[in-house]
Every structure is written in structure tokens, then in C-alpha cells.
Amino acid sequence: MNIERPDTTAAAGRGAVMHPATLAIAALFAFVVLAQGISAPFQKDAEPQSAEWIASIVRDGHWLIPSDAYGYSDRKPPLFYWLSGLVAKSTGGTVDEVRARTVSVVAGTALATAVLAWTAANVGASEGWLAFIFMLGTYGFASRATEALTDMLMTFLLFAAYCGLATLVDNSEPQARAAPRRPIEAGLILGLAVLAKGPVAIVLCALAASIYILIERRNPIAILRQRWPWQVFAIAVGLGAVWYVPAASIGGNKILRIIVAENFGHFMPAKLGGTGESSRPFYFMAARLMGGAFPMTLLIVPAALAFYTGEISAGKRRAVIWQVSMSLAVLLFFSIASVKRDDYILPAIPGIAILYASVFTLEVRGAASKLRDVLVAAFMLSPIYLFLFVALFPSHVPQVNLQSSDAAYFSIFQTMGKSLIALEIAWLVAIGVVIFAIIRRSAIVVGVAFGILALCLSLFWTAGMRPGLAAMRSVKGFIPIVEDHVKGDQLCIPSGINYELSYYYGAAVPDLANPRCANAAAGKPVYLIATPRELDAMTLEYRVRLKLIAKSNLIGGGGPPALYEISPSGANGGLKGAGGAAK
Questions:
Q1: 532: which residues sit within 8 A by CB, 6+ positions away?
Q2: Which residues pair with 511 in a beta bridge?
Q3: How many Cβ atoms from other residues are within 10 Å of residue 388's Cβ?
Q4: Phi, psi (deg, nearest 5) at residue 493
Q5: Which of 49, 142, 465, 478 has the smallest set of CB atoms within 10 Å of its CB?
Q6: How many Å apart are CA 145 and CA 140, to the nearest integer?
Q7: Which segments of 314-462 does DSSP mark as H helices, in order?
Q8: What pTM, to 2 d.p., does this model score?
Q9: Tell me: the pLDDT tens digits for 73-116?
């Protein structure tokens, strides 16, 4: 193995306690970065339904079991909705996009700041700042800070609880006796995580700790002979029971079925009694994690190589492995689980950011350092490759077939103007800094330039591209036109449930199978919102009874939705005539 002198700014991991003022400034910076796009319109179903649960708390006082506009009960533990309800109540009582997403932004800010503080104290100050920048520059993390969903809050609480367990696992019973408050603190935080997402928080902590212990070549069963794991478990379960017990008692079998489906049905495959929804191949989570953590994932091979060659110092190894164990636990658990969703990668990102930050502070300059520099330089120079391709093979560019969302992104990209110029300038400056730093073997400078460029790219998407796409897809801008025509008459949809429509319309919109649509009084207008795809599923006899009132210019897989007036005979025979869409 060929090992040369160390990178000039690389140093052994020295723990550093961050000054509160420094953390406050970092938190403010993170908040500003993560809040970009917070007012973008809702699209699809997940966020609008979550906003309706928050509205159920604020408007109706349903704190225990909120329900959406269609009457369906909240399927998640309520901590996120409780906090969001308090935000809405204290700021005027209105549930809009900003208020529904505020808790996620605050949780994301707290998580990024906690990663900075923990990494600085246990790995090194340089690694802490790099991990902080990498977190903010990771689109898979930054984009979820402006989602009205429970995942960011759960991830912050899970990270805080897992960090609290680190000392207990490493020092076991003597440390627990010396500081009995630590199991209590870890149990309370873990219990809050249970109230945010469910018992999966306990499972992930236990699995991650077991992976760490096995990597350290210790027996995980030996930990169970100690008192503190059971204290942590009992406190977490007891705090979670604050909601689970009364909810199950009042909600009866309905809530019990939801709890079982959410906590066990999502893990088990459909043939063994699972829900069967969002079932994807086992490699789905790994692929999503690789894509969601880009460009950090370029460093996965240098990181693994640094551990193998010993380029990462012994003083950092245990702390880094501790956090990476959570990333491995998330990947393993959700790869095995039947239900796999994009949001599930979020708890894995802090550990990955800390791991990749340590790649820029290696003890010696060996194969890992050289490969790191090559990959970073290749990433920095990637726009040049694209430019050369367009210049040398211009005839191939029009042949690229884009999907609907990609075509929309491309159209938004063409209108970015000054933002695009600023990004290009940042990229050119970063290229110059990285080349100079590589020549000078200043690894920290390479890492900072790499992270800041990733941050600029992430901001480009979260502040511009993503909100622009949401505006092109969301029915928010079409609803005033619909309300102006429908007024107090009945509005319907072809089939199923549309939470995005119901949220912006302000009431549940039934489908054609509902008596309010199918049996409307003769002569009273009945209206229908449908996309071209939904119209194609209807019979010709039914479609001829539809009169086009207004058409939107929204994009989406089903085509732009439009408002139609249904003739009285069409309304009365809605289910039969539109059978293809209403079944």
C-alpha cells in the first residue's frame, strides 16, 4: 500500500464543543436555506391530507384522532400534527402551506445543527462543518424540510435519541450508574420519536446499536443483561402509550386496524397479511438513497477504502461507525420491509453526511485520498463534458425523449435566467478552488468547495425548480375559476379521493358513485372535474353529456384537468354512464 504524506489541512479528529452563539448562527443559516420553497402549492395527496388533519385539530378540536375532509382518521401518531396545530392556532388559526410545513423546517434546522454539534464534539470541528454543509447540500434532505409530513420531525428525534445512546452502549452499566439521567433522557426523546412516527423508531435504534456492536466484535446480547436498555425501552413505550392507549380505547377496532396496518402491515409482504401498498424491489431503497444523497454518494468508494486502508484515524472510527450503523439499519430494515417509500431514506442521511465529511480529514494521503480527489474533480468538470457533447453532437440533442415531469423541469430551467448565471459562476469558481486545493493537497478546502457547490445546486432546485413544478401541477390556481362557476352547486370527481382538490376547494369532493352526484335533483347543475385520461375511461354516451366550462393549463400524467357541467340525465346516470371511471 502506497501512503504518502498527509493532506496539509487534515488532522486527527479532535472533539470540540461548539459555542452556543456559533450554533445559533449555523441554525439561522440552515433555517434560511431549508425554508426555501415553503410556500409552494401542495400537489398530489400526502401533504394536503396531512394539512387536513392539522385543520381538523385547529378547526374542530380533534386532538386525539384528527380526520380529513373525507372523514378518514389520521393514520400516524399525532406529535407532528399537534405541533403544527399549535403553530396554526398561535398565528391566526389558518392552515396554509407555510404553517403546515413550519414544524418540518424547524426540525430540519435542528437536525442539521445537531449533526454539526455532535460531529464536532465526537469526530472533529472540521468534520462537523463539512457534515453540516453536506446535509444542507443534499437534495434528499433539503427538499423534505418543506414537506408537511412527519418524517423530518421523526428523523430529528431519532438522531437525538440515538446520539444519547452512544455513551451508554460504549460504556454500558458503569456509565449508566454514574449518570442515571442519560437513560431517562434517551428514553424520553425516543418516546417522542414514537409519538412522531411509531414504534419503528425503537426498532431502528435497536437495530443500529446491534450493527455497531457487531462491527466492534462484541456480543449484542450482553447489553440486554444490563438495566439501562430496559429503562430506555420502558420510558419510550410509556410515553408512546400516552396517545396509543386512549386512541385505541376511543377509536375501537377502527383505530386498532390502522395501528396494526401502519406498524406491522407495512413491513410484512401482502401474502403474509401485509398491506401490499408501495411494494417495490428490495434494491429500491438503496437506489433512492444513492440518488437522494447525490453528490455525496460519489464518495462512497473512497469512504469504504479509507476504512480498509486505515487512512481514517483510529480516534474517529468509532464515532463515525456509530452513525453509519444507523444508515445501515435504515437501509436494511426498509429494504426488507414490504412498503418502500422515498421518505424512508431520511434517517440514513445524517450518518452518511458524517461519514463522507471524514473522507476529507484523512490521517494519511493514500489510495482513498487520491480517489476522492479524482471523483470530486470529475464531478466539478461534468458540465464541460455536457457542453462538449452538445457542441460535437448537436444532432443527438433533439432526440432525447423527456418524461412529463422532466420536460416541465426543462421548461422551468430555460426561464431561470439570473439564477442560472449565478449557478454557473459559482460552479466556475468552485472548479478553480478545487483544482488549486488539490494541487496544494488542502483536503478541507476541497471538501468545502464540493459542499458549497452541492449547496448551490440544492438551493437551485428547492428555491426555483421545485416550487415552479408545483405551481405547474397544483390545482390551487385553478380552484378560483372552479368556485366562480360552481358557486353553491355540487362538484364531483370521476372516482376515488382527491385530497389536493378537497384541500384547496375547502370541502370533500365526492365521486360519481356518491348519491350527491349520481342522484342530483333534475335541473340543478352538477359539475365534474376530470383529466383527459379520466374522460377516456368513461363511455361515449356519458361523455356527450359533459359540457366544457373551463380548462386548466396544468401538467400531469393524466393531462390538464378541466371543469365540465353534467346534464341532469348524465348526473342521474353518473355511475352507470361513467362506469369505467367510477368503479
A1: 558, 559, 560
A2: 493
A3: 10
A4: -125, 160
A5: 465
A6: 9
A7: 314-336, 349-358, 367-380, 382-392, 404-413, 418-440, 443-460
A8: 0.87
A9: 877 888 999 999 999 999 988 999 999 999 999 999 999 999 99
